[in-house]
Amino acid sequence: MRRKRIILSVAYVVIAAVVVYAIVYTKGFGLLNKNDNGSGWSAVFLTNGQVYFGHLKGQNNQFSTLSDIYYLQVEQQSTLQPESTKSTVASPSASSNLSLIKLGNELHGPKDQMTINRDQILFIEEMKTNSKVVSAIEAYIKNPTATPTP
């Protein structure tokens, strides 16, 4: 009788260890993969200075997958205006507009999914539901003919 209890106890410990492993290390049940703020959107900052927004999977793997991808594009308009009537070199003043661009319409025609080597990721930020970028993405999803602006 005592031997049977020991065997059952060991079996319970092994089963508990397997369940803990599945949850913690493989994110098997999605418990650790949830976003605290509920937006589900991530900002991925790369070593080349680019930032992409989307749904990120496989953060702990050598390669992560980003889908539903957007990025910011800066459109600068420079004007040269003399500061005074003196003959001085005019200093350029630049005003810039930000546009949120949906990946997929570029010249090379990429799919809306990107595989990123972990070595190329500087850091990842989970975005809040009240983020201007998330709001612009959600507005674009509702009306894809409009240009999303954060």
N- to C-terminal distance? 69 Å
Low-confidence parts? 28-37, 83-95
- So what's the CATH class of the largest domain? Mainly Beta
Overall SS class = alpha+beta
Helix content: 10-25%
CATH topology of the largest domain: SH3 type barrels
The amount of beta strand, in percent, is 25-35%
Q: How would the global form be characterised?
A: elongated
What is the mean pLDDT? Answer: 77
User: Compute the gyration radius: what is it?
Assistant: 25 Å
- The sequence of SSEs as H and E is HEEEEEEH
- Biggest sheet layout: 6 strands, antiparallel
Whole-number count of domains: 2
Describe this structure in words.
With 150 residues, this protein is an alpha+beta fold. The chain has two domains: 1-34; 36-142, Roll (SH3 type barrels). It has two helices and six strands. Strands 1, 2, 3, 4, 5 and 6 form a six-stranded antiparallel β-sheet that branches. The protein starts with a helix and ends in an 8-residue tail after the last helix. The relative contact order is 0.18.
